[in-house]
User: Fold this.
Amino acid sequence: MTSTQDSKAAPVAKATMMIRRPVAEVFAAFVDPAITSKFWFSRGTEPLRPGGTAQWFWDWYGVSAKVEVLDFEPGARLRIQWNDPPTVTFVEWTFTALSPERTYVRVVESGFHGDDQAVVAGALDSTGGFNMVLAGAKAWLEHGIQLELVADHFPEDARHLG
Assistant:
């Protein structure tokens, strides 16, 4: 973190979405890779659990992320750190039941690294990414539709277009 960042709040990525499903079902969608793979990554090694680790894969991009669970409160909160040093960041999901069939999900990612420009770019990129993830989760959980938002965001045959 630069001295400029020390004097102000560091940028974070934020995304929110109301999903018309019970809080337990929405929480499960983010910890069980069999469900999460319907709207975010290609596959995961195992469900998230308290103190556990997993690996998430985005096969269409040839990348993966190591995930370590820091906090795990079923139906309420999930906090992870992911990636390897020096690019580790922290992601926290909070799940609030607005009614028995409506859940408000809030995602915040923090701990971006680099100079001011890199930190802001990371926060902006993750903000867009997590908004796509939440939109995909909403479509899957409410309607059973796989939108393929993450896979189609930067398809291989369009990468030369920038």
